[in-house]
Design a protein that fits this description.
Layout: H1 3-36, H2 41-71, H3 75-105
Helix pairs in contact: 1-2, 1-3, 2-3
């Protein structure tokens, strides 16, 4: 791929990455809001489904960007994107763990879900 086309593709993929990460963050903050507002278990479970879908989409988008960097021999950029994926997966795990505790055991959410 010529350098100009590569740069155009990178810009488009990064724009999509930003959109997907924003959707994930909104979905995660929606759950946190429900937990703080004593929402019903059904509401929290529905929000968890939306978070799962958002997480799945953002990981796919980040994977696509990482692969593009790998194919372009930009290994450091690929490693940065992989670290972003790992952070998203950690945030997802923390938030769903708190949601499960809220729904299954009637426990109040922990502070971990409140990180940005």
């Amino acid at each position: 791929m010529d350098p100009v086309e590569y740069l155009k593709t990178e810009i488009l993929v990064k724009r999509e990455k930003t959109r997907l990460k924003t959707n994930f963050t909104r979905a995660r903050k929606n759950i946190v809001s429900h937990l703080e507002g004593n929402a019903s278990s059904a509401t929290v479970k529905d929000a968890c489904k939306q978070l799962y879908l958002a997480m799945d989409e953002v990981v796919k988008g980040l994977d696509s960007l990482s692969n593009m960097y790998m194919e372009g021999d930009e290994l450091e950029k690929s490693k940065i994107v992989i670290a972003e994926m790992e952070k998203i997966e950690l945030e997802y795990g923390k938030t769903t763990e708190d949601a499960c505790a809220y729904c299954c055991a009637g426990a109040r959410p922990t502070k971990r879900a409140h990180t940005s």
